[in-house]
Amino acid sequence: MNFEMTDEQRQLQAEARRLSRAELAPKAAHWDAKAEVPWDNINLLAKSGYMGLLLPEQYGGTGASLLDLVIVLEELAWGCVNTSLFVFSANAQGNRIVQLGTEEQRASYVPRIAAGTLLASHAMSEPGAGSDARKLRTSARREGADYIVNGTKCWISRGSVAGLFLTNVNFTDEGSKGLLLIEADTPGVEIGKIEPLMGHRGSPSTELIFRDVRVPADRRMSEGDLSASLFSMSFSRCCNAAMGLGAAQRAFDEAVEYLKTREAYSRRLADLQGLRWMVADMKVKLDAARLLIYRAAASAASGFPSEGEAAIAKTFANETALQVASDAMQLMGANGYSCDYPLERIYRDVRAFAIAGGTTQIQRNLIARSVLGQRDHAKG
Ligand SMILES: Cc1cc2nc3c(=O)[nH]c(=O)nc-3n(C[C@H](O)[C@H](O)[C@H](O)COP(=O)(O)OP(=O)(O)OC[C@H]3O[C@@H](n4cnc5c(N)ncnc54)[C@H](O)[C@@H]3O)c2cc1C
């Protein structure tokens, strides 16, 4: 067991940290307030290779590991959660195609995702199917060399700007579920309502409607049945946990600086024992969350990390991020609550991580299953 980063990981972290503080943090409030996609940052990061960080070199990526990616995502989210979400998405959807797609699909889509010229989203949730993905109703009926797709998806992150949807469907002729690659400009694909979200406001979440969309049958992902598709969520969960952690670390850093300068009762806040213990508890949780994320990410030798370890990391990191963001706000008093400081934005942004990518309740179900096995009444 080795707890040290490699020299390359240290360099990767230092460069992402520099970029995040110099380029991303100064405009993070702008993208949030205007609910605008941070295109400047996306273009900058694409040029620097971040969109394909983890994707294989043969498809234009740099072949880094999931551990490398979570280290980078934490740093990027420290400066701007909205920007980190685009880097996450490119690497996560690109990896899904690499792991679950055909060679033609990899060659066709992954190089453009790695270059940042094609944005891809995962379209699984539906109005009647959130946690329980088995209830999804979007249908794909075979007609000659095509599938005809009908249905409505919701909460699709970056839906209005994506060029490609990795879409979970029911193959109605077979009675099975799987993944289809549906290009956004295919006739019959329509972007519905843009959800007015509390956070992640620079990463538009949309309805997605399919009306008799004709998709060539060779866009079916060869390994993308429902269980593989759900298993692939473990990758996203490590990234989700790392971005929430980065935002919480920023909240912590802001509060620590504040405590060092603000005075009450003729003493620095940093000298009040009750507040020092709060800071100590926050630090313990942040470090523990980071180690759990690293452990889960390091288990991803064959493309996806361990489901149980990713669920443990996500649960602990999501709840730590919520607690730390809330405590940091408390430590800064009214300034913490003011929109002049980044705390309130961070508070709103971290809230989403405990819901998106599978709620913390669903993660607990996965953890319990990894310990106790399947519940008897859930078998069969
Ligand atoms: C910011 C954001 C981005 C998102 N991006 C995407 C995206 O890109 N693509 C996509 O497909 N979806 C996306 N989603 C949707 C997300 O995956 C779902 O919101 C999530 O899976 C929960 O589903 P739900 O909202 O329907 O809640 P429900 O499933 O209705 O759950 C409601 C409550 O019941 C609890 N619950 C449900 N079942 C159980 C159970 N068996 N045991 C214990 N508790 C349970 C849940 O934990 C929750 O607290 C996004 C959501 C958000 C907030």
Unreliable segments of 5+ consecutive residues: none
**Overall 3D geometry?**
globular
Q: Rg to the nearest angstrom?
A: 21 Å
What would you give as the CATH superfamily of the largest domain? Butyryl-CoA Dehydrogenase, subunit A, domain 3
Could you tell me the CATH topology label of the largest domain. Butyryl-CoA Dehydrogenase, subunit A, domain 3
Total individual domains: 3
Provide a short characterization of the protein structure:
The chain is an alpha+beta fold and 380 residues long. The chain has helices spanning 7-24, 28-34, 39-47, 66-79, 81-100, 103-115, 226-231, 233-261, 273-298, 307-331, 333-337, 343-353, 360-372; strands at residues 120-123, 139-143, 146-157, 164-171, 176-183, 189-194, 205-216, 263-264, 267-268. Bound molecules: flavin-adenine dinucleotide.
